[in-house]
Amino acid sequence: MTIDMSIPGSSGLLNAVGKRNMKFFSNRYVLALTGAAGIGGFLFGYDTGVISGALLYIRDEFPAVRDNYFLQETIVSMALVGAMLGAAGGGWINDAYGRKKSTLLADLMFALGSLVMCAAGGPYILILGRLLVGLGVGIASVTAPVYIAEAAPSEIRGGLVSTNVLMITGGQFFSYLINLGFTEVPGTWRWMLGVAAVPAIVQFVLMLFLPESPRWLYWKDEKAQAIAVLEKIYDSDRLEEEAFQQFTGINTVMYYSPTIVQMAGFTSNKLALLLSLIVAAMNAAGTIVGIYLIDRCGRRRLALTSLCGVVISLVILAMAFILQSSSSLCTAAANGTCQGALGWFAVAGLALYIAFFSPGMGPVPWAVNSEIYPEAYRGMCGGMSATVNWISNLIVAQTFLSIVGLVGTGLTFLIIAGIGVLAFIFVALYVPETKGLTFEQVEQLWKERAWGSRGNCQSLLGSTA
């Protein structure tokens, strides 16, 4: 059997798109690839979420941490420094050595970092472990969505890539569950941080038996291997037709949600973790909604709707804290009742934020970033994008508590709401709709934006050469 690997003309693309009808659950092999790759997303979510609860007990064990906001922020954000470095290098590793080897390397970093944190005798060894885990997070954040996207049929690509986001939010939910489960166990935070080594080892073993990305294989001139993988994804007719999030506040919510809950007046560690667990559950549930909608409503509409809700909920959250800090609104006799009501109002704002963020701004950026870059530079560009993401993450995690101490919790959330407005404007003006498009159609879309009609001419010349 011979397969034409050249970029088809526009009529060929339209015919191919017209016949695309693969359903989300119709190919178990694709789902298996997605699930195995998604363990990296699970680890990503777990390791970024678990510190929120572990930090409460790390502060209790180490007086130097308890009395130092900067050290607390560093423990949280050192994983983000590692993620930034991992994403920057991970793009090059992906393009040079493939998606599979990149995943294996990420797993090694996850497992080593988890064990170092578990055994840490002081805050600085703990910070080293967070750095190692962060390297794994950074590499996984580049690799998993690209690996899934390159194996996914275009009509369900958004949903499959969003499954990786579900694994991230599921990992965050599981981290809160683990945090709550270990509250009465000796060595509380050590168990919380060390247990992440287990799924890292599981994914490492699974990846040894999974193939490399078919697109990467074809790009490296391993056509026979690429076709062998694609034959497990498409039927023979379909095979012949193929051609080869962060300043908006989610990091603040996921890294510091128990702390935010305590700021709202719920001082118990266990209650703070329980309320945060509910928020994390909503995040995972909302991602499932996003998986359903992303290939039906499109990326742009989902992102814009999500951002509208995010801004509204951040304003509600900000007002709850502003009113709570204004003693003039509560009489002395009713102060406790008033403060308690406003505390619940803040928690409601937090839940509303997650309800809007998780179906849209949760999965959409990962889906778009996995499909908008040219074939030869997909890993590198994805790494650059993820690096910017982690730089944003780092800034938020390293400064949130300090900004709260400087200007107050309410104004801090108003600042984040303003950034959400800027994000809405950016998406409305610059982000294209990629729903249902093949990688080749997306590339053609960018050519037309850059060169106008000349993009069509150059594409035609390239296909007839």
From TrEMBL:
Record Gene3D superfamilies: MFS general substrate transporter like domains
Pfam family, one: Sugar_tr
Annotated ranges, domain Major facilitator superfamily (MFS) profile: 33-435
Entry membrane topology: Multi-pass membrane protein
Transmembrane segment boundaries: 29-58, 70-92, 104-125, 131-149, 161-182, 188-210, 271-294, 300-323, 335-356, 403-431
Keywords: Membrane, Transmembrane, Transmembrane helix, Transport
CDD domains membership: MFS_HMIT_like
Signal sequence bounds: none
Gene Ontology annotations for the cellular component aspect, listed alphabetically: membrane
Subcellular location: Membrane
Family of this protein: Belongs to the major facilitator superfamily. Sugar transporter (TC 2.A.1.1) family.
Name of this chain's protein: Major facilitator superfamily (MFS) profile domain-containing protein
Organism: Urochloa decumbens
Lineage: Eukaryota, Viridiplantae, Streptophyta, Embryophyta, Tracheophyta
